[in-house]
């Protein structure tokens, strides 16, 4: 098997493994993702251009990374209360605390500085 075919097969299998982890317990999402992955790979089955194939494999790897790090499954455990499935791969961003003294951008009139300018001047 050529190295290019191995790359495609590896990408295909990795997408399916990630799909199984990300959508675990959600049969509808598992089925939809399986169908979409298979559809996309079958649609491009007869592409012969090596550069195009490498670009598609790269795209598949990017999609796999997005699924693994950005998709969060949540389910309602009781009315108004949700449980989110966060994994070690899920990207968690820093939260910026709310500032009561911040001036909304819409409320700025001429000559009045915005909250970002005030913060910059404080640090000087």
Question: Can you tell me about this structure?
Answer:
The structure is a single chain. The protein is mainly alpha-helical and 124 residues long. It has 4 helices and 2 strands. A hairpin with a 2-residue loop joins strand 1 (73-78) and strand 2. Helix 1 runs antiparallel to helix 2 and helix 1 (3-22) runs parallel beside helix 3. The protein is extended, with a radius of gyration of 23 Å. The termini are far apart.
Task: Please write out the topology.
Elements: H1 3-22, H2 27-43, H3 50-70, E1 73-78, E2 81-85, H4 115-123
Antiparallel strand pairs: 1-2
Low-confidence stretches: none
Tell the overall outline.
extended
- Give the CA-CA distance, first to last residue: 63 Å
Any idea what the radius of gyration is? 23 Å
Enumerate the strands of the largest sheet in spatial order, edge to edge or round the barrel: 1-2
What class, by secondary structure content? mainly alpha
Percent of residues in helices comes to 40-55%
Query: What profile does the largest beta sheet have?
Result: 2 strands, antiparallel
Summarize the structure.
By secondary structure, this protein is mostly helical. It has four helices and two strands; from the N terminus they run H-H-H-E-E-H.
Main traits of this protein?
124 residues; two-stranded antiparallel ribbon; 4 helices; extended
């Amino acid at each position: 098997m050529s190295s290019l075919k191995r790359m495609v097969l590896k990408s295909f299998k990795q997408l399916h493994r990630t799909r199984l982890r990300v959508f675990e317990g959600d049969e509808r999402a598992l089925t939809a993702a399986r169908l979409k992955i298979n559809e996309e790979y079958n649609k491009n089955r007869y592409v012969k251009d090596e550069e195009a194939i490498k670009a598609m494999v790269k795209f598949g790897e990017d999609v796999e990374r997005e699924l693994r790090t950005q998709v969060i499954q949540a389910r309602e455990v009781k009315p108004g209360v949700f449980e989110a499935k966060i994994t070690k791969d899920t990207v968690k961003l820093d939260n910026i605390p709310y500032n009561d003294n911040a001036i909304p951008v819409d409320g700025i009139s001429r000559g009045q500085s915005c909250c970002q300018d005030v913060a910059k001047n404080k640090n000087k």
